[in-house]
Amino acid sequence: MLASRALVRGLQSGFWRRVSTSSSAWAAHTHDVDVIDCSVPQYNNRLDTPLPDIPFVRNLSAEQKKLKEKEKGPWTQLTKEEKLAIYRLTHELTFPEMKKGSKEWMTVLGGIFFFLGFTGLLVWWQRVFVYGDVPHTLSQEWVEKQTQRMIDMRVNPVHGFAHKWDYEKKQWK
Amino acid sequence: MFRAALRLSVSGARSLTRSRPQYTASVAARSYSHGKQETDEEFDARWVTYFSKPDIDAWELRKGMNTLIGYDLVPEPKILEAALRACRRLDDLASAIRILEAVKDKAGPHKEIYPYVIQELQPTLSELGIPTPEELGIDKA
């Protein structure tokens, strides 16, 4: 009880701390923020929007800045690694990476089966340990006597129960 | 003829087919019930002019490219060449590579379109030094 209250308190202070941070500090982060500043353009990976609004990496280190300077010259002078680095500065994921998909569905399906199985265990336990005995009128002996009485009474003799009993041969048809 | 190879107008929507040029005149794209319909040549010319603006800015490049990719067609190589040259004017190699990736994605199941486009663009790519995604190894995830 106390632990859960402390947990909630911790979550709340974390939330407010993030919101009170100035927007410029958070605009500089373009990866994995909990609270997104929607008043500035966001980076996004979309197949139908190949050129995103802002580059992925905003705060360039010194060597990244040097690379950007080199980009202003002829591109024939860039090595393949430099060209790839320039691409990765502006874009987080390539098209094939965007389209890749994940194995999450296996986890989801596995989780579903697991919890179905767990529910089955609960249902079995309930059947064995919670439910009392069935009424005595469902016992083998009682049902036999009941069936014999129904035959003697000719229950549903036209199309139903007694119709299926052969009274000559004293057996079911 | 090559334009016809790239476009087949089916129920007013632009889409592409597999077979090589059997089609004669290019057919207009949008099925307005009234008004003049823009021909393929006019569409291409409009977009080439857009990207050929000498002082195009980065926003216009992004807007143009994202809009063009939104259409139900693969852009003609001449439009793409103008866009790549615009990237050069803006010193933006990453966008140039991204445009090539987007073209391949737009072709969808029609696997012969992208090699054709690259073949048509090869002089420009070599001149400007733009690598294809395959050369950089980013065509596989």
From TrEMBL, chain A:
One of its GO terms (biological process) is mitochondrial electron transport, cytochrome c to oxygen. GO terms for cellular component: mitochondrial inner membrane; respiratory chain complex IV. CDD domains: Cyt_c_Oxidase_IV (cd00922). It holds the Pfam family COX4. Coiled coil: none annotated. The chain crosses the membrane at residues 105-125. The keyword Isomerase does not apply. Pathway: Energy metabolism; oxidative phosphorylation. It is found in: Mitochondrion inner membrane. Component of the cytochrome c oxidase, the last enzyme in the mitochondrial electron transport chain which drives oxidative phosphorylation. This is Cytochrome c oxidase subunit 4. It comes from Culter alburnus (Topmouth culter).
Automatic annotation (TrEMBL), chain B:
Its main location: mitochondrion. One of its GO terms (biological process) is mitochondrial electron transport, cytochrome c to oxygen. Keywords: Acetylation, Heme, Iron, Membrane, Metal-binding, Mitochondrion, Mitochondrion inner membrane, Phosphoprotein, Transit peptide, Ubl conjugation. The keyword Acetylation applies. Coiled coil: none annotated. One of its GO terms (molecular function) is metal ion binding. The keyword Electron transport does not apply. Pathway: Energy metabolism; oxidative phosphorylation. One of its GO terms (cellular component) is respiratory chain complex IV. It is a peripheral membrane protein. It is found in: Mitochondrion inner membrane. Component of the cytochrome c oxidase, the last enzyme in the mitochondrial electron transport chain which drives oxidative phosphorylation. The respiratory chain contains 3 multisubunit complexes succinate dehydrogenase (complex II, CII), ubiquinol-cytochrome c oxidoreductase (cytochrome b-c1 complex, complex III, CIII) and cytochrome c oxidase (complex IV, CIV), that cooperate to transfer electrons derived from NADH and succinate to molecular oxygen, creating an electrochemical gradient over the inner membrane that drives transmembrane transport and the ATP synthase. Belongs to the cytochrome c oxidase subunit 5A family. Component of the cytochrome c oxidase (complex IV, CIV), a multisubunit enzyme composed of a catalytic core of 3 subunits and several supernumerary subunits. The complex exists as a monomer or a dimer and forms supercomplexes (SCs) in the inner mitochondrial membrane with ubiquinol-cytochrome c oxidoreductase (cytochrome b-c1 complex, complex III, CIII). This is Cytochrome c oxidase subunit 5A, mitochondrial.
